[in-house]
Design a protein that fits this description.
CATH architecture: 6 Propeller
Helix content: 10-25%
Strand order of the largest sheet: 1-4-3-2
Distance between the termini: 43 Å
CATH topology: Neuraminidase
CATH class: Mainly Beta
Radius of gyration: 19 Å
Number of helices: 4
Structural class: mainly beta
Number of strands: 25
Strand content: 25-35%
CATH superfamily: Kelch-type beta propeller
Length: about 350
């Protein structure tokens, strides 16, 4: 791995609030993702929403899902095979040792950094706006440690991969992707960072998947439906993908899950055509926030996908409409905190 390379980055000390997304840059993204005139009928087949607040149910204690318990136990005792073979679990192991506690999202998604783009090229990370010619809103990021996010694709070099330190803004080069991509998604597959789908610079949708392990990118089983503008979330040893589009005016409603080395299309469909959704997991549920919908506008709607029953439910809406180019969330005190595309702060109570 190359030594960290200090990038020339402009830090904007003043954070400016922006109006709801309707800029030409975002519309360009949606021009590839515009949805068919009729996709609302899918909603009729979805079980009616339960609008009661989650707090009406008995309070739940967040615990590791069963698929993670063994790995969590090994991390807790410092099993050398786990720490050695899963490089990105090392910060988690340090946290467990120092704090003696576990947050159920950490094995799948670090949850201490939130961020999204305030415009085409400026990336808001926590409270700072960071500008670097190497990345833009078509790039994708995932938090891989307490101090770093991994950025892939987009910009001029759609195969690029590097780590960005969120404190110093220095970069560390990593091996390039095999297939260049933009408007893809990043999540965890088998406890390693992964890139899924997206599109080529010419706009053609991709179905390829790559996983980072042993210092290299490895091709993995392709998804069943090519798509870009999709969102993903891992739950233990499974990875779920939602939404996106495979061409203009052609959204993908089908949900796929990666399990035991293959992608499986499940019976449940996303209730409506959406791209750029915010997605995160809490216990056995995956929350799906906002997104750019079939009406050509950002959405306030929130759906929850029950990973056990494989069904969608409606939940209380966002306070304002939003879509997301990145999927970086902070989960704390029963609240999800993040930024939408254009840098507006988003908070959503899980109670």
């Amino acid at each position: 791995m190359a030594e960290p390379i200090e990038s020339t980055i402009e830090i904007h000390s003043k954070v400016t609030k922006h109006e709801e997304v309707h800029s030409s840059e975002h519309e360009h993204l949606i021009s590839k993702h515009e949805n068919p005139e009729s996709s609302l009928e899918e909603t009729k087949h979805i079980e009616p929403a339960k609008e009661e607040p989650i707090s009406s149910e008995p309070e739940k204690t967040l615990l590791p899902s069963s698929g993670l318990e063994n790995l969590y136990s090994k991390c807790l005792v410092g099993a050398e095979d786990v720490i050695k073979n899963h490089t990105f679990l090392q910060p988690l192991h340090r946290q467990i040792k120092t704090q003696g506690k576990f947050h159920e999202t950490l094995l799948s998604n670090y949850n201490t950094v939130s961020g999204d783009y305030t415009n085409d090229k400026v990336f808001k990370i926590l409270e700072n706006d960071v500008e670097n010619s190497r990345f833009n809103w078509k790039s994708r990021a995932i938090q891989v440690s307490d101090d770093e996010i991994m950025i892939t694709g987009g910009a001029e070099d759609s195969t690029q991969v590097f780590l960005l330190n969120i404190h110093t803004y220095s970069t560390t080069e990593l091996p390039s992707l095999h297939i260049g991509r933009e408007l893809h998604c990043m999540t965890w597959i088998n406890f390693s960072p992964a890139v899924i789908g997206g599109c080529c610079i010419n706009g053609q949708a991709l179905d390829s998947v790559e996983i980072f392990g042993d210092g290299l990118w490895h091709s993995e089983a392709s998804i069943n439906h090519k798509r870009y503008g999709l969102s993903a979330c891992s739950t233990g040893n499974k990875t779920w993908i939602f939404g996106g589009a495979n061409s203009r005016n052609s959204p993908v409603l089908k949900v796929e899950v990666y399990d035991n080395g293959i992608w499986i299309e499940i019976n449940a469909h996303l209730p409506r055509g959406l791209v750029g959704m915010g997605v995160f997991k809490v216990e056995d549920e995956i929350f799906i926030l906002g997104g750019f919908d079939e009406t050509g506008k950002n959405s306030r709607k929130v759906y929850v996908f029950d990973t056990k029953k494989e069904e969608f439910y409606k939940r209380k809406s966002l306070s304002s409409s939003a879509s997301f180019s990145q999927n970086l969330w902070v989960l704390k005190d029963n609240t999800a905190c993040g930024f939408s595309f254009r840098g507006n702060e988003v908070t959503y109570s899980l109670e």
